[in-house]
Every structure is written in C-alpha cells, then in structure tokens.
Amino acid sequence: MSVCCLPVCRLSACYLFAAWRLPLNLMLSSSLLLSFSLLLSVAALMLPRAASATDALPFNLSDVVVTAGRIERPLADTPVRTQLLDRATIQKLHTRDLRDALRIMPGVQLREVHGKTGDQVYLQGFDGNRVLILVDGLPITATSGSTVDVSQVSTLDIDHIEIVPGSGSSQYGSAAMGGVINVITRKADSHQGGHIKFDSGTFGERELEQQYHPGQRHFSADVYSRVAGFNWNAALDVRQSDDFDLDKNSYPSNGYDGEKINYSVSLTRDFSASSYSLKARRFVEDSAYRTIANGGFNAQKFELLERNHLSSVNHWQLGEAHRFSATLLYEQQQDVSDQLKNDRQITLGNLYRDALTHQRKASLQWRWLPQQWGFGLASVVTGIDWYQEDLTQKKAEIKLSAEADSSVGSVELLDDGSYRHTTTEVPFEQRRAVEGFIQSTLPLSPQLELAPGIRWQTDSDFGYHSAPSINLRYGLNIHHYDVQLRTGVAAGYRVPNLKERFYVFDHSVNGY
C-alpha cells in the first residue's frame, strides 16, 4: 500500500454536497445523501521523503483513521471522506473540551443546547439529533432528546478526532444521518509519567460580583504507568465557571455558575496476537443559572447530572487476514433538575425532576483482509450489535392543596404548610434493537476503489429497516499533483430513542 506524506502544503480542498430527503414522520425518518469531494494535494518532487522529516509537517496523510470504514486505513486511502483533528493541533489550540476543538473544523457548526449549558453539533445542515457522537466508537447518553452536549467531553485524554460527513447509517445505524464524529482516546502508555495543567480567566466587569476574580478555572492532570504487565492511566479534568451577566439591569444571567468534571481510568494489556482494555469514566455537571419564572418571579435552575460509563474492548488477531473484536458497554445517567423561585419564602410552584437512563451495548466484529483480492488491498468488515436502553422519570411540585389527581403517587406535608406532590411521569420504558452490518473495500484497479455497505436493524418498537451505501475513490497523478476524487450515495434512517418519545422537558418555571 502506497502512502503519500506531503512535505510542502495542501493546495486546496473543495467539498460540494447535495441532499435529497424522503418524507419524514415522527416515528421513522429516512434520507438519501449524495456527496462529492475533491482533494488536491501538492508535494515537492525533489524533496526527500525522510521518515524523520514527517514529524515536523503541518499534516500527514499517512495518519491512520478507523471511523469511515470501521477498519484502520491511512487517511489518504479512505474511500469515504474523513476529516482529522490530531492531538498536536488540539493542544496548540489550548482546548478544554470537545466543543472548543470542533470550532475550527470546516463544515461543523455549534449551537447552544436549548435549556442547557452546552453546545450541540450541526453537520451538513442536520441538527444534533441526527449527528452521532462517539467516544472510541461507543455512543454517549444524550442529556435531552438525542442531542449530545459536546462540552461534556474533555480533551485531556483525546488522541485525535475523526469527522465523517455524510450519511453514516449504513455503518453506525440510527442518529448518523448527518454524519459521525468519533473521539479516539489515547492508549495507556507503557512508560511512567504524567501531566498537570492549569489555566484561568476572568469575565471582567461582566462578573456578577464585580470582583474581577478568576471567573473561569480549568485544572487537568493525568498519570500513567505499567504495573504487573498492565498499562494503566488515570485522568482528572475540572472546568469551573462563575455566572456572568451582559445586562446588569435584568435579573437573568448569561452564563452558568458551576463545574463540569471528567474522571477516567483505563487498563490495557497487549499480547502478540490479542489486546484487552477496560475503561471506566465518570462525568459530573453541577450548574445553576438565573432566569425569570412564570408569573414574573425571579428564579434559578439547578441541575446535577451524573454519568457513569464502563466499557471493554478486546481484539484477537488470527494470522494476517482475520481479526475479531468484542465490545461491551454499560452506561448510567441521572439528571436531577430543580427549578426554584429565587425567594426562599415562596416555594409554591417549585419543580423538582429526576430522570434515570441506562444504555447497554454488545458488539461482535470480524475483519477479513483477503490478500488474493484487489491487489492485496481488499477488505471486508462485518458484525452484529445488540442495544438496549431504558428510562424512568419522576416529578415533584410544591402546592397549597393536598388534593391530588390519579397520576400523583404521593403527597407530603411540609413544615411551611404546603404539600409536595410526587408524580411518576415515566414509570419504566425500554427499547431494544439488533443490527447487522457489512462493509467492504474492493479495489478495481490500483487507482479505483469501490466501497459498498449495508446495515439491517430490527427494533423492538419500530420493526425492520435497512440502509445501503456505496462510495467510490479514484486517485491519479497529474503533473506531480496527487488528486483524490471521492463520491458516495447512502440511505439514512432515524429511529427516535426513549428520551425523544417519553422524556418530559418541562420549563414551567420559565413560563412554558
């Protein structure tokens, strides 16, 4: 396989997209996307391609990516257009979270998550509900609906970020209609060492206290070592912020007061023909911001979100042609949201909500590299995914009367004479899906490569659906210019998750 490392510059990159959407409905939506990309790259013919020189290059097309074809391929040879943001760039930008890192990526838009403190990703015109965010190929539990808040993912242990615009439903299923963003974390180092970082800033006169103290603070640290044959890594990232206000004459604040904390511990062990890894992550967000409540009262919203993640990824290599992978995921998320009147003496109408979600996933994948096909460059990747999620949600509200309707589970008398009404809004909802996929790369010539694929899904609530795709890459050299032409057609589908269907996103304290 030939790899081109560019020692000079990228001349230009131009991407053109068009999309045709089939009729959408609330339960299941589909789309058909056609994408075309042209990448022109220039290399000086007389400069030596020394391996030691590539480290100083601004970018390197030999970087290996996995998201586009679920198989390790050099960036220059992927049949599906892929954008890469490497660790060196992430560090130079002094990014604190995934939101900061994605700001510089072309075609990626960031917009605030309504009613939350973070941002969601828009890709190719699709909103955050239709762009799949992954960490090491595994999904993240959304905070509301299917929208993942990218400010919750710390960049402390990120190795690189892979962005695949275009429909990814044929490979990654529902929620990948607009594309896939896959965060690849660093592998635990076999050496001993660590890093510590601290930075801070101020909002100046916009701080509510007007004390000009550090309004934002960021601390991160990680340590790694090798113990008893295992490589382990532990990391901590804390991002704190004080609320600020652009208009001191009004009560609502523009920024939140609180912190976002990421904890992670990973353990890996590599053998000659196999590797095993176990990762545990925890995320805690504790935030508060000021707003105007229904009826004109000054109010505050407090939110405590806790997410616990445990995953295991294992690989077995059988000769040069076959590789098997097994992945297990368990994730729990609890979101406690309190919408309170600012006057502690007035508790009537205060709302307390508690939502608990779980997601479980098991995957098996087989990769085959048939050396006798396609000039030794052909590949076949196939696998099966099992997925399950569940949701429960409760609400408590302060009222003057003890009378309750049939939906209220309990009524409690408080010290001030008011009553706390507790309601189970979502008793227990569960959804399961089984999906199979196959993706292949078929070189028809040393320059022409075809990549067909298809995915089948059987959902416990929505039945059967399939999503095919086909991508084409053509490479040629014109007067010492390396040119890569990529085009693809894919069908996408969208299955709403439990939060979209049952989660009560109520801002009654804000007037709606």
Summarize the helices and strands and which ones pair or pack.
Layout: E1 9-21, E2 29-42, E3 64-65, E4 73-74, E5 83-86, H1 87-92, H2 98-102, E6 108-112, E7 119-123, E8 131-135, E9 138-139, E10 158-165, H3 169-172, E11 179-185, E12 193-201, E13 216-227, E14 230-241, E15 257-270, E16 274-292, E17 298-318, E18 322-341, E19 351-368, E20 379-399, E21 408-413, E22 419-443, E23 448-459, E24 463-478, E25 481-494, H4 498-502
Parallel strand pairs: 8-11
Antiparallel strand pairs: 1-2, 2-25, 3-4, 5-10, 6-7, 8-9, 10-11, 12-13, 13-14, 14-15, 15-16, 16-17, 17-18, 18-19, 19-20, 20-22, 21-22, 22-23, 23-24, 24-25
Which tags fit this structure?
512 residues, Maltoporin, Chain A, 16-stranded antiparallel beta sheet, five-stranded mixed beta sheet, 25 strands, disordered N terminus
Describe the protein's architecture and organization.
The chain is mainly beta and 512 residues long. It has a single domain, classed as Beta Barrel (Maltoporin, Chain A), CATH 2.40.170. It is 4% helix and 56% strand. The protein has 4 helices and 25 strands. It has helices spanning 87-92, 98-102, 169-172, 498-502; strands at 9-21, 29-42, 64-65, 73-74, 83-86, 108-112, 119-123, 131-135, 138-139, 158-165, 179-185, 193-201, 216-227, 230-241, 257-270, 274-292, 298-318, 322-341, 351-368, 379-399, 408-413, 419-443, 448-459, 463-478, 481-494. The strands form 4 sheets. The chain has a 16-stranded antiparallel β-sheet that branches. Strands 5-10-11-8-9 form a 5-stranded mixed β-sheet. A two-stranded antiparallel ribbon has the order 3-4. A hairpin with a 2-residue loop joins strand 24 and strand 25 (481-494). The longest helix has 6 residues, at 87-92. The radius of gyration is 25 Å and the shape is globular. It starts with 8 loop residues before the first strand and ends in a 10-residue tail after the last helix. Mean pLDDT is 82; it is low at 1-59.
